[in-house]
Amino acid sequence: MLGRPKTPEQYVDLVEQALFEIEDLRLAAEYDMDSMGAATEFLADLEHDVRKLRQAMADGSYRFGKENLPFVNVVQNQDERILPFKQLLLKINETHIKGLDVDES
Q: What is the pLDDT of residues 27-42, one digit of tens each?
């Protein structure tokens, strides 16, 4: 997906995909601490923040905003070799700030 999601369902799917990727990376890091150990330092906070976002979506308290989501500072400082789904997380944040990509026509 190149652009922002067009529907709330697509946005939720992005967040759920991010949670899957976080879990997958956490398991890989636990399995191979020598080469992936750097990932474990920020993954717990990242997972907490993304789960909190997903919960807000589920309970109806989520609101689009003008500020970055809490996890963005951590994500921006990571190399894509450590965080291979960095662009997915940045797309979630972009959608949070700019809203869904709905046609205005």
A: 887 777 666 656 667 8
Structural domain includes residue 72 = yes
Specify the DSSP class assigned to residue 81: T
- Determine the structural domain holding residue 40 and report its residue range: 8-98
- CA 94/CA 89 separation, integer angstroms: 9
pTM of the model: 0.88
DSSP element (H, E) containing 17: helix 8-31
Q: Which of 1, 2, 3, 12 is nearest to 101 (CA)?
A: 3
| Residues whose CB falls within 8 Å of the CB of residue 29, separated by 6 or more in sequence, listed in order | 36, 37, 39, 40, 43
Query: Model confidence over 2-58: pLDDT tens digits?
Result: 689 999 999 999 999 999 999 998 888 777 766 665 666 788 899 999 999 999 999
Task: Judge whether 105 lies within some domain.
Answer: no
Q: How many structural domains is the chain composed of?
A: 1
